[in-house]
Amino acid sequence: MDNLLPNLLSFPPHPPPPNPISDYAYDQGIREQIDYVRKLADSKLLQQTSGGENVLDVSNDRLLLETIS
Does residue 37 contact residue 59 with C-beta atoms inside 8 Å? Predict the structure, then answer.
């Protein structure tokens, strides 16, 4: 799971950029994230991190909801 976290946490940018991203850029970024998560095997998403957390503890909940709807 630790090797997946950088991709899972890469969007939206944190801290937010000084100039907010456009709606179009946000839409593109979240679509890429949704595609990435959908391609992951369920077994990968259920693995714990080296710190003992699970993906629901450290990820963007909105992103995960989008992938299952």
Answer: no
Q: How far is the C-alpha of 64 from the C-alpha of 37, rounded, in Å? A: 8
3-state secondary structure of 22: coil
Sign of CA dihedral 64, 28, 24, 17: positive
Distance CA 68, CA 20 (A): 27
pTM for the complete prediction? 0.60
Burial of 50 (0-12, 13-18, 19+ CB in 10 A): exposed
Question: pLDDT tens, 1-55?
Answer: 567 777 777 777 778 889 988 999 988 988 888 888 888 887 777 777 777 777 6
